[in-house]
Amino acid sequence: FEGSLSVPFLSRFDKDLVRLGTVVFGTDVGEFTRLDSDGVDVYVTASSGTTDGYAKVIKYSPSLVALATGSYTALPDSSPSGIGVGPTGVFVGIATGTSPSQTRRLVRFSADLSTVLNDVDVTALVDSSFNMPLPVGGSVFVGSYKSSTAQMMLRKFDSNGDYTGVSSTFSGVAGVGRHLALGPDGTIYQVGGSSVSGGTLRDFLAVAYDQNLNQLATATWNGPANGTDMAQDAAVLSATQVFITGQSFNGTDFDGV
């Protein structure tokens, strides 16, 4: 997947990162943000390229053929963030309106994108820095980060998007905590940045939870320059192999790690 604000496009690569194909879009599709897969097809969130300001989800085949498009038209000025494809549908985090009256929605589309099944206002439950819905069985987990209280939060919702009352809050965080990954044993990993020295520096932070959001373990990493380090995403290959990517300040600028 690739894209830009001016010319969004979608590319397919093989496992050795050899490009197999690319499709370029017109003005009806704005910026791409996130993508996920059901194991066969790919679902991509996109902001509208027209003046209506509606968030979209587009489904593609492995050969980059557009199979379906779903639009969120209930509220104007909507922009998508994260997307999670699960057994009960396609979940998308959507922000609507402009500050200070912006609302945050957890929206569930049918797998064929023909229907919005649920549209739940989660403004009071997740901060503006919320991103990836992670469907797990009949539940959906959503991470967010609140800068005013330096807290990384994780909330559990049911398959309709209704809040279950189960949550976890990790304090002393100076960076995004909205990126989630699922391990093969069902463990949920949330990554971001941890405060060091009163919040002036950050280290990579990873927190492991069970599905009742009991904290199982934490890990931090300080880059070689002892500067600001920020975890951005994670992939889990096994219960003992968790890969985290992000950026590390080298004293002059940031390196990707």
Task: Give the helices and strands, then pairings.
Layout: E1 9-13, E2 19-24, E3 29-37, E4 42-48, E5 55-60, E6 66-72, E7 78-86, E8 89-96, E9 103-109, E10 116-121, E11 129-136, E12 139-146, E13 151-158, E14 163-171, E15 179-182, E16 188-196, E17 201-209, E18 215-221, E19 229-238, E20 241-249, E21 254-256
Antiparallel strand pairs: 1-2, 3-4, 4-5, 5-6, 7-8, 8-9, 9-10, 11-12, 12-13, 13-14, 15-16, 16-17, 17-18, 19-20, 20-21
Q: Write out the strand line-up for the largest beta sheet, numbering strands in chain order.
A: 3-4-5-6
Strand portion: over 45%
Tally of strands:
21
Helix content: under 10%
Oligomer: single chain
Please work out how many helical segments DSSP would assign.
Answer: 0
Average pLDDT for all residues:
81
Order of helices and strands: EEEEEEEEEEEEEEEEEEEEE
Question: How would you portray this structure in words?
Answer:
With 257 residues, the protein is mostly beta strands. Helices cover 0% and strands 60% of the residues. The protein is built from no helices and 21 strands. The chain has a 4-stranded antiparallel β-sheet with strand order 3-4-5-6, with no helix packed on it. A 4-stranded antiparallel β-sheet has the order 7-8-9-10, with no helix packed on it. The radius of gyration is 18 Å and the shape is globular.
